[in-house]
Specification:
The chain is α/β, with parallel strands linked by helices and 172 residues long. It has 6 helices and 9 strands. The strands form 3 sheets. It has a 4-stranded mixed beta sheet. The protein has a 3-stranded mixed beta sheet with strand order 7-8-9. It has a two-stranded antiparallel sheet with strand order 1-2. It is globular, with a radius of gyration of 18 Å. The mean pLDDT is 88.
Amino acid sequence: MTVCPSCNAENIPGTEFCEECGSDLSALALPEARTEFEEHLMNDPLGDVGAPEALSVHPGDPVTLAIHFMREKDVECLLVRDAENEIVGILTERDIMMKAAGPKTDLSALAVRDIMTVDPVMLRETDTLAVALHKMSIGGFRHMPFVAEGRPALLISVQDVFQHVSSFIQPS
């Protein structure tokens, strides 16, 4: 871990800015990879993972429509886009289970905006696998959108990352 000299918060090695206070950490010494697995975690960009294009719904869509779309497309989450096609949220299975599911809840009357996670943390195509895993761990996320230059937003999952690096794990 890299400890921020300004606030003493622990950050993943190689993080450019402190997750806690935003201080510049780029001048701090970076760790060396000792194994092929660590090398891939520290250096492989998200663009190498082959993440799928993110599917989306609108904030005003009924939750039942989103659930139907998720089942039909066999996905665990959707991006939420406004009328200008800007990403304003993310809707996950967990959001539905924790915020909408209940014996007296009418999912047809409930809008996606009522249960979505607003303003999701975004990654960049050039972020490394380690940065993605760190942000997922800190935020408690299983899925995160990332933007790729000139392409639609993609959605990476913890499972995508593990599938990518699994061939680099050496048995002990």
